[in-house]
Amino acid sequence: MKKKTTLLLCAIVIMAITAITSCVPQKKILYLQNDTTMNDSVFMSMEYENARTFNYKVQPGDNLYIRIASLNEKSTAYFNMGQNASINTSNTYSSGNAAIYLNGYTVDADGNISLPLIGEVFVKDLTIDEIQTKTHTLINEYLKADVYVKLGLFNLTILGEVTRPGQYQIYQSDINIFQAIALAGNATDFANKSNIKIIHQTPKGSQIVKVNLNDASILSSPDYYLKPNDIIYVEPLKTKQFGFTSVPYGTIISAISLLVTCFTFVAVYLQK
């Protein structure tokens, strides 16, 4: 009888330990850890240097928005053919504005865009500022004007352990990793925030980099700001297969109560 009691107690202990260890610890959920300047009792300001520059080099398939402005309305209208549609220029992130795509200039497979009157302009591997300077020089051979160039569509694909995985179109010059994940509804509790994979598109193919959102040093990482056409993959924690985001106390208590009831019934039956 003592042996059966011991085995039952062992089973209860093992069940409780398994349930507790299957929970996702808070350390794997919190963002921006490992910062010694911040704790519950003392808060000190800490600056992480990370120059906010936009040096993305345009690639085939990218969409450019080019606007010409001058005092000569008739000539300006010629250069701006097809670009009179209403375009959302607010500072908010958006996920659908076909006007920018339809009225922009798509970089072809050879790295060119085709401008009215001027013809093909090679823009591959140039930054937005370089394209603006180059286009301004070409336009001013025909018309004294100002030229404004922006990246028309900033595509991001966010996959894995986020609330709303999918493809997003950003109408801004840049976006950081936290803003992107917030756009997808934030990471789930089962997200492995210490091993986020970012796939950059390069002229030769693709490059995979890993970032740790649990570590505050991400704020000064060169991969903090994303690039157009990046793919972000938030992989799940291994505990997702059998884990809990919090300790299921109700389930544990119910299971223990059931086992105790069964043990009591068996003990009483054997004593008869």
Describe the structure.
The protein is of the alpha+beta class and 272 residues long. It folds into three domains: 2-23 and 246-271; 29-49 and 154-241, Outer membrane lipoprotein wza domain like (Outer membrane lipoprotein wza fold like); 63-151, wza like fold. It contains six helices and ten strands; from the N terminus they run H-E-H-H-E-E-E-H-E-E-E-H-E-E-E-H. Helix 1 runs antiparallel to helix 6 (249-271). The radius of gyration is 29 Å and the shape is elongated.
Q: Main β-sheet, in a few words?
A: 5 strands, mixed
The averaged pLDDT comes out at: 76
**Record field, number of beta strands:** 10
Look at the structure and give the CATH class of the largest domain: Alpha Beta
Determine the number of helices (DSSP H or I, runs of at least 4 residues). 6
What's the CATH topology name of the largest domain? Outer membrane lipoprotein wza fold like
The sequence of SSEs as H and E is HEHHEEEHEEEHEEEH
Low-confidence stretches: 84-96, 243-247
Q: Tell me the CATH superfamily of the largest domain.
A: Outer membrane lipoprotein wza domain like
N-to-C span: 13 Å
What would you call the shape? elongated
The CATH architecture of the largest domain would be Roll
Radius of gyration: 29 Å
Beta-strand content: 15-25%
Provide the number of structural domains. 3
